[in-house]
Amino acid sequence: MGFRFFKSKSIAKGLRIGISKRGLSANIGGRGHSISLGSQGVYLNLSIPGTGISYRTKLKGPGSGASSKSGGAAREMPKGVQVILREDGTYEYSDQSGEPIRDQTLVRRISALPEVKAKKEELSAQYRQDQQDKAKQLNSQMDSFVNIASLSPKVRRSLSQDTSSKDDPETIMRGIDECIDSMTLPVEIAVSYELRGSELWVDLDLPELEDLPDKEYVTLASGALRQKNRTQEALRGDYAKCVYGVSIFVAASLFDSSPGIERIVVSGRTQRRDREGRICDEYIISVKYTRPAFETTDLTSIDPEAFFLSFENRCLTTKTKLFKAIRPFDPHEG
User: What b/e readout covers 286-322, taking b as 16+ CB neighbours within 10 angstroms?
Assistant: First the structure.
């Protein structure tokens, strides 16, 4: 066995000179982080005393200005270090036992490593996507209010070959009652009706503006999820789509319940306080829907307001979609 020779001498605090057969070497730093200079090049040494976590990478080759990146030295995650992305979008590092790394000097050094930066970018991309999906899911309740018209059934031209039942009032009303009982919507409504020949007059107790969610979830640039209040203008716009959508859904369902119904007049009311503070009914929409348009239109992709306004109607709204009280159509009008 050959003899090995190594001698170390401390020159100043944090600086140690070593002498061996390969020549002189120097180590600058202390426990946890240091830089070694010797005949084999310049190395960065990182460790957490007492944990077994260590990391060593070549910064410069012997007698060369080439960095480890260009010199082809393998880059790996620091041994035992885990990068953790927390729920609030911030990062922390833990050792091999799962304990968080608290040494801020070491944290800064770990954060600057290319391998750690790449891992953080990967985690950030996944985090932003997860948060966007979560926001979409949380906001789906609002979407269900706005897209009620898309739930409308396809109105068929005929439900039976027996034309004798088409004009039978009892058969028509039985179909209407069954239709109303089976209606399923994300909002609460009340439906009453009067059948006058082939014309159906429908009275709707509409959902209230206060029934709509007044908050929404958004993702920030960092990917973090935040809840914010919706503006009154946005709420009124979505409420208008809800009101138009409810009238379209109810009309389509009732048209589909019987081929004997040729026209449906829908009038919708809501509850508001008068000047004396008493709650009273106010009608805000009244529209005369005709069967042919429902038979030929794909209601799953319409603009509810535009479709509503294409029929004879009574409806007054401000520029900010605030409904004003109207006088509904009356079956006893001349």
Answer: bbebebeebeebebeebebbebbeebebebeeeeebe
| pLDDT score at 77 | 56
Sheet of 23-30: strand order equals 6-12, 15-20, 23-30, 33-38, 41-48, 53-60
| pLDDT value for 251 | 97
> Letter for the amino acid at 11?
I
Write out residues in the chain with pLDDT < 70, as ranges. Answer: 1-79, 158-167, 334
Q: Which two tokens stand for residue 175?
A: 């179909």
pLDDT of residue 16: 60
Tens of pLDDT along 210-238?
A: 888 888 888 887 777 888 898 999 999 99
